[in-house]
Amino acid sequence: MEAKIKNEEIKAEPAQKTICLVQLTRLGDLIQTAQVTKKLKAGRDDIRVTLVARKQFADPLRFLLDEVFDEVYTLDFTGMTNSEQNNLEKTTQNLQVFLDQINTNHISALINLSFSKPAGYLCSLIKADHKLGVHYDNYSNMVVKDYWSQFIYSNVLGSNLNPFSLVDLYANVIGIDKNVEIPLAKRGQGKRILVHPFASLSRKRWKVSKWAELIYKLLKDNPELVVDIAGGKEDLVDVTTLLSSPVLGDFHKRINNHVGKKSIKEMYDLLDDIDLFIGHDSMVGHLASFKNVQTITVSLGTVRPTETTPYQAGAYVLAPRTKCFPCQPSEKCELYQCHSDISYQVACSVVEQIRKDGEVDFEALSKNISSFHLTSVDIYRAEINNNGNYRLKSMTNNAPDSKDVFREMYRITWSFLLDNTDENLPYPRLSTQSHQVLLNSIQGFQHLFELCEFGKKYSKFILQEISAETPDIVKIKNFSKKIDEIDHLKSLLVKTNPNLAPVVDFYKMRKGNLQGENIVELTENSYLVYEECGNVCSVMYELIEKVIAEHKIKSGIRTKDKTSNA
Amino acid sequence: MNELRQEVFKKIQEIRTKAQKNEEPNTEDLKVLLLASLMEEECHGSKNQE
Asked: What end-to-end distance do the CA atoms of chain B give, in Å?
């Protein structure tokens, strides 16, 4: 009898476990989330993956999302508030209906991939066995427990030194094998090019006249070429200006204008006939990568190529070498220097080379284009390394700027410490300017390491005082004050050494999310955070030293050569 | 919509008072916080478009 009762109490595990992804941000992010989900589901029949997204972004992509996700729940805020009785009671009732739909199925893991307040609160209201990413606790405090979500929150939203693609970061949060389902660009050698000359903000796109020049040159030099132009209804005025450009007067028969005429689904279907895509960072580029169409992205303004370039091995990126690129959305800019730094001649030659040879050869490129145009632009090709990580590899002979050098060093450090993987990258070439920046930063890392040692020391003092027979609360408070001072000094250090921001911000985030039920556990974990932060400083310090030493050796060889030649 | 905004605003004040007293917000409070954040986002969205 007893055994029978016990058997009844044991609930059968569902055959498939449900993972629910929350992605409330825009179209491009939704496509990238779909790309990660493809990886997650590859060869896995034991999991169901559901998605929670905003209705206005999910509906136009329904054809693609339904293919990848087992179920899609759409949050329709406008619909919720548009009832006849537009009051709080009715709206919360509508919200509850939506929540009930999601909560009907038992969710094993809820993973928030969007880092916004609404997504955080929504995740607090969804029931799940485990929660990853941002959510709020019972006291409405923000909680981010896992390393990689903490990394995204502190590094992607904060500094511009994040070395990883968003798709890889999402894969890290979920904890999946990155080596599966990697889209590979088909060689874009056919005769149809899709051009998307628009972007959501003017700072992220060239002026229409520049695109007119590019299209003109491509059509003039390639009599068999056909250009398709993509865009939404909001781009209708710009496309009219583009097509009325006098230089395109003779080529209208070879230009297919789809702007404002095709839905996203129709555009997705059109990609079957397209051989190459060129445009700014936007949803269309991500759609093209989904169909393995070769992409070339012209990155401008606030766009961070390492994070948002279409996820595709072989994708090309043209990025300006402007000092302020990529800028922050809050920074005002009248000049748009980054727009001038990528000339249409470079873009045109890159398209020509890919069409002819399937890839870009910098030596050949430098024979056709003036170095005046080439020195102001970086050309990157996306490659996937042995660990399945996406990386943009420079194709030019330009020495990388200090931000690029730091990104590469951070890639090695974070991969080693957070992912336990080795990234084998060549030593970056240093310019005089980046050499100086590294020399300045090495002191910064030294100071940060020392502060971490102090943090460990005072954490230890607190633990010792607590374990004393009669703990002195005043002493504990004073040690705690010292720790606050150390954290304040760490923030000040970033002001003089901005390249330290990824480390300081990440460990600030880790410290804000310390786990522990009592003062002892919290202090022990605080000690560990200082220890981890110190380890990052040691690795970065060593890397900088090695890069500088290598640079000196190479410079020395050059000096010797000069001497022997003389 | 304005009426709803006012109601949400009033409720948020109540939640703040509760928080000052160190009281836990309940599920209904979390729903209000979610609605407030959605409203805030919508407002910023329309400002950006302008």
From this structure: 20
DSSP assignments along A323-373, one per residue? TTPSPPTTS--SS-HHHHHS-HHHHHHHHHHHHHHSS--HHHHHHHS-HHH
Pairing status of strand A276-280 against strand A255-257:
unpaired
Residue A396 in contact with residue A342, Cβ under 8 Å?
Answer: no
Chain A within 8 Å of B43 (Cβ-Cβ)? no
Summarize pLDDT for A235-275 with one digit per residue, the tens.
999 999 999 999 999 999 999 999 999 999 999 999 999 99
State the Cα angle at B39 between A69 and A281, rounded to 5°. 55
Nearest CB neighbour to A140, from listed B25, B38, B42: B25
Nearest chain B residue (CA) to A88: B4
User: What is the bridge-based pairing of β-strands A109-112 and A142-143?
Assistant: unpaired
pTM for the structure as a whole:
0.90
Q: Which of A156, A433, A217 is nearest to A321 (CA)?
A: A433
> Which residues have C-beta within 8 Å of that of residue A178, sequence separation ≥ 6?
A39, A168, A171, A172, A387, A388, A389
Task: Give dist(CA A409, CA A403) in Å, integer.
Answer: 10
Residue whose pair of structure tokens reads 């890397």 in the numeric block: A543
CA–CA distance, A72 with A24 (Å, rounded to integer): 12
Handedness of CA A442, A158, A417, A306 (dihedral sign): negative
β-strand pairing of A294-298 with A276-280:
parallel
Which residues does A170 contact at the CB level (< 8 Å), separation at least 6?
A32, A33, A36, A113
Question: Per residue in A318-348, pLDDT tens?
Answer: 999 999 999 988 888 988 999 999 999 999 9
Calculate how close chain B gets to A459, using CA atoms only, in Å. Answer: 27
Radius of gyration of chain B (CA): 13
Is A475:A529 a contact under the CB 8 Å cutoff?
Answer: no
A89: closest CA of chain B, how far (Å): 9
**Strand-strand pairing, A390-394 and A377-384:** antiparallel
Taken as a whole, chain A contains a residue count of 566
**B12 interfacial to chain A (CB closer than 8 Å):** no
- B27-49 helix and B2-20 helix, angle to the nearest 10 degrees: 130
Q: Say how far apart CA A354 and CA A358 lie, in whole Å.
A: 4
